[in-house]
Design a protein that fits this description.
heterodimer, A: 217 residues, alpha+beta, Alpha-Beta Plaits, 2 domains, 8-stranded mixed β-sheet, two-stranded antiparallel sheet, 4 helices, 10 strands, 18% helix, elongated, B: 611 residues, alpha/beta, Rossmann fold, 6-stranded mixed β-sheet, 4-stranded parallel β-sheet, 20 helices, 19 strands, globular
């Protein structure tokens, strides 16, 4: 069968499931729902599933994408419901479809963040000013140790406002090349302007876009 | 989710083990049940979620409509520190509610090294450690599991122990507790009534007196409690509930697979083995039941592996037919079938070859003793010839990784027996040279030794453990004798074994040391990361307890044993007889060849022992 794509949400208690554990959980959920995944050939066959943008532990999402192949044809209309019933709390399949677009075409992500301050909120304008600087160079862990990186080009747009006793962040950030972990928005504050740094930050991925800022599926 | 928890979880290792929400978890309306039960496993989530007993009892207790049983595990050190820092009490995974919301706290204690973690979990729940300091009926703190066959070291902390298998008796206790709660009984009233239920041991209803030489003088029941608490069992395993819908962890645990229990008990009667005696009588499940339950569990979990559990898998009468039945389902779905605890015989090897066509895991053989004489002493009916024949089949079949397990310090062991281990490893190596299909791949033979721990209710319960220094000398002796470079020698540290011996054979006085260790920060003692020998020795000294009295002293056979009032079904007379045969290096036939009238069949009202 064709390459299929799943769009799913990972929220609530499920945000603490790591990427590798999520792969195992998905694999089992397909089996529980009665779908047979296609496996790779070779000595150590593994199911052909891949998640387009691995999500860090603790970050929620309502726009996760996963590619998979089934051994038999399946009704893609009923698959989301059947698979969701076989998933643990917090994982919900939104749709399943034949995917045509390459994963490399995915470029931007809309994220929403909640910044918590235990000793009073900073002025949103100060935060906006911080993220409007022409360069935001921070220390970043890379495969080869710690390096310096400017995260500003990876932020297409960002808006901050006070809401429910927290600061709400809405940003469109680069999903790939370079990848910006939204956690680094809070991390940049901690490194460069501790007075504005939140005591806790939690992010949710909202939507995926291509290079031209059109919704990516 | 709790706000405080939300801040902590991103910082700790493997946070998914602290959140609950897994597939097949059981959720109920907390206001619609009469009893809330926190079912605690005194170790990490990864260990507890791999425990079949936990999974079975989670289901049987939740089958009572008036009970909501939730799971609780001990947090790893990082999470423990974060919880303490943030003031988060221990909570149950399903509801996230702190243990203070629960009517009852139950522990499954499978091994003695978990004792300090039991105290730690009580403390994290905000409860006084000692039963006497918890005068109210609720929360009732109770415990069961293999360690309960000598419950004495934990007796002051636990209100009530379950002796034996919990499927039925747990629900009887919960039914009585519900009545007690609804009718406002006192804790004393409840415990007195509960002690009348078969398999229930209420330590506070037994007075223990000691002699001047330190031995137990007498254990005296009061308030109508039975003089001996007889172990409970499930008679018909086919009719007994089996969790075909177990909770599936969303994070990797020790065993991510479906476990099928073939039978309980063991026909072999190895004289050092506690499990082989306390799980009698032998009761097997029908292969039809197993195949049905296995397939159901695979469908309900989505696991890619199925394993067959028992103390000695190759003693299951219908094993080939069972494997065929399961393979029929598994093979076309790429589900692996694994068989642990096989014996070193040809039959088992043929089966292994059938199961592991592509990937060949290592083979492990528990040889236990280095000479035929010593193996006869312990009644481990494995000959060197059996082992070498099996290895020959394995090596010619493409295996190249063999592990050999032994114990050092078994009764009557001599240096000659120890050198026999090295000689045997060399024989296995030679066998590989003769039979290996592809010698370029090399071979790895691992010899592991642990220190013999005499265990209650085994024929060796009266035996002394060798001293630390003597164990170390024997390790060095063996180390020097293992010279082949393809043979790797690992030895288990004896310090843990000494503590385990004290906790296994201890009486109520040992409780003080357990509490002292806990108060000094001891928890998760089953982990080398946390175990501190120095702390235990300090605790013994501080509490005036001589650990060598418990571990390294041979107990006279006419002494009152601290666990004599616990009756596991096997007669003390049988254990003594077996010990005498051991002294003469005399084998006893396995139960299938000749019943030894151990007494365990008396636990069966109608069924027959499958021995």
């Amino acid at each position: 069968m064709d390459k299929l794509r799943l769009r799913f949400a990972k929220t609530g208690r499920a945000v603490y499931i790591s990427h590798l554990d999520l792969m195992a959980t998905m694999q089992r959920a397909f089996a529980r729902a009665g779908y047979r995944l296609q496996y790779s050939e070779g000595f150590n066959p593994h199911p052909l599933i891949s998640i387009l943008l691995p999500l860090s532990v603790g970050t929620a999402s309502v726009c996760e994408l996963m590619d998979f192949r089934l051994r038999e044809d399946a009704d893609l209309q009923t698959l989301p419901v059947r698979l969701t019933e076989a998933l643990p709390e917090g994982l919900r399949v939104l749709e399943a479809y034949v995917s045509e677009r390459k994963s490399a075409e995915l470029k931007w992500l809309d994220v929403r963040g909640r910044l918590e301050y235990d000793r009073g909120l900073p002025a949103p304008e100060d935060l906006t000013a911080f993220f409007s600087q022409p360069e935001i160079v921070i220390e970043k862990k890379t495969k080869r140790g710690i390096g310096m990186a400017d995260i500003r080009p990876a932020i297409d747009r960002i808006a901050l406002c006070a809401e429910d006793g927290c600061i709400r962040v809405d940003a469109r950030i680069s999903a790939q090349e370079p990848t910006l972990n939204p956690e680094l928005l809070a991390g940049a504050l901690r490194q460069l302007n501790p007075a504005l740094a939140p005591d806790f930050a939690a992010f949710t991925r909202l939507e995926t876009y291509d290079r031209d800022h059109r919704i990516y599926r | 989710m709790d706000k405080k928890l939300e801040r902590i979880l991103p910082r700790v290792q493997k946070p998914a083990r602290y959140t609950g929400g897994e597939y097949n978890q059981i959720l109920k309306d907390r206001d619609a049940v009469d009893l809330r039960l926190a079912f605690c496993f005194p170790d990490t989530y990864e260990i507890g979620m791999s425990n079949l007993g936990m999974s079975i009892l989670y289901q049987t207790m939740n089958s009572l409509p008036f009970v909501w049983c939730e799971r609780v595990f001990a947090p790893w050190g990082d999470m423990y520190a974060e919880m303490k820092q943030a003031g988060i009490p221990l909570y149950a995974l399903e509801s996230g509610d702190p243990l203070s919301c629960f009517d009852s706290i139950a522990f499954s204690i499978g091994y003695e090294m978990a004792y300090t973690t039991v105290l730690d979990m009580l403390d994290m729940a905000g409860l006084p450690l000692r039963s006497a300091d918890r005068p109210a009926l609720l929360p009732l703190v109770w415990a069961g599991g293999t360690a309960a066959v000598n419950a004495e070291p934990m007796a002051p902390f636990i209100d009530l122990f379950i002796i034996g298998e919990g499927e039925e008796v747990n629900n009887e206790v919960l039914t009585l507790l519900r009545q007690a709660k609804l009718e406002n009984w006192s804790k004393q009233d409840f415990l007195r009534r509960a002690a009348q239920i078969g398999g229930v041991y209420v330590p506070s209803l037994y007075e223990v007196s000691y002699r001047d030489d330190g031995e137990v003088a007498a254990v005296t029941p009061k308030d109508g409690a039975p003089a001996k608490v007889l172990k409970r069992i499930v008679e018909d395993l086919d009719a007994s509930p089996f969790p075909t819908r177990p909770v599936v962890p969303s994070t990797e645990v020790v065993h991510d697979r479906v476990s099928l229990e073939l039978f309980r008990g063991c026909v072999r009667g190895c004289r050092f083995c506690q499990a082989g005696h306390v799980y009698r009588p032998i009761r097997a499940k029908k292969k039809e039941t197993l195949i049905r339950q296995g397939i159901e569990a695979l469908q309900n979990t989505g696991y890619q592996e199925l394993t067959l559990l028992s103390l000695s898998t190759s003693d299951y009468r219908e094993l080939p037919a069972l494997c065929d039945g399961l393979l029929e389902y598994c093979e076309e779905r790429s589900i692996g079938l694994s068989l642990p605890s096989l014996r070193a015989d040809n039959f088992s090897m043929e089966l292994m070859q059938k199961l592991q066509k592509v990937r060949k895991s290592g083979l492990t053989f528990a040889v236990e003793g280095g000479s035929q004489r010593l193996r006869d002493v312990i009644n481990k009916n494995v000959t060197e010839e059996d082992l070498l024949n099996t290895c020959a089949i394995a090596f010619s079949g493409g295996w190249n990784n063999v592990k050999l397990y032994y114990m050092l310090g078994l009764p009557t062991e001599t240096d000659e027996d120890i050198l026999g281990i090295a000689a045997m490893a060399n024989e296995v190596l030679h066998c590989w040279r003769v039979h290996a299909k592809n010698k370029n791949r090399g071979v790895r033979i691992t010899v592991s030794t642990s220190c013999f721990i005499p265990k209650p209710h085994s024929p060796f319960q009266w035996e002394a453990q060798i001293s630390l220094d003597e164990y170390r000398r024997r390790v060095e002796l063996l180390r020097g004798a293992i010279t082949a470079k393809n043979v790797v020698y690992n030895w288990h540290d004896a310090e843990t074994s000494l503590i385990e011996a004290v906790l296994s054979k201890g009486d109520r006085r040992v409780a003080d040391a357990i509490e002292w260790v806990f108060r000094d920060g001891g928890r998760l003692d089953a982990w080398t990361d946390y175990f501190s020998f120095a702390r235990w020795m300090e605790a013994f000294e501080h509490c005036g307890i001589d650990p060598h009295f418990y571990a390294n002293r041979e107990i006279p056979t006419d002494a009152v044993l601290p666990w004599d009032h616990i009756d596991v079904g096997v007669r003390k007379r049988h254990l003594l007889r077996e010990r005498e045969r051991a002294c003469r290096a005399e084998l006893s036939p396995d139960c299938r060849r000749q019943c030894s009238a151990c007494g365990a069949a008396g636990l069966l009202k109608e069924g027959r022992c499958d021995g």
